[in-house]
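Section handout, structural biology tutorial.
Before the tutorial, make sure you can parse a SMILES string by hand: atoms, branches in parentheses, ring closures as digits. In the record below the ligand is zinc ion, and the chain has 141 residues. In the tutorial you will relate the predicted structure tokens back to the input. Do not try to memorize them.
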Amino acid sequence: MPESARVISVAVSDSVPCPDCGAPAEWHGVQVLLGDDSLRWDTETVCGECGSATAACGTELPGEMRERLLAEHGATELRLGSSVDRVAVMRVLRRSLGLGLGEARAVLDRGYGGTLPEVELLARRLRVVGVGAVAVAGAGR
Ligand SMILES: [Zn+2]
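Predicted structure of the complex:
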């Protein structure tokens, strides 16, 4: 089974005021790395009081939700092998994260932290071009 078939996800839950009646409603959010190596997020708010339910989804993770995922689970760290091809790594970083040359170099020197699905995707793209890379969950914030 190709490793890209593995689905990776990270989730958060919270209680938020219902947009319709103001009672505490359950909020769930999840970010998923799908089998085709695309990222997706979903949220759902369900009110037990009035039955109101709202859902949203997309590909580009909203900043506030990303903060919550990172606060809840800690950042996942991108770890590179000891003797990696820096040019190949920078090429993947620039293409995947849309970074400039200087920013990509800073990531290479200082490391990169993000949500588990984000960093796993980056690690997969690096492994595809022969760079030893792993995503280490909960390594730091
Ligand atoms: Zn309600």
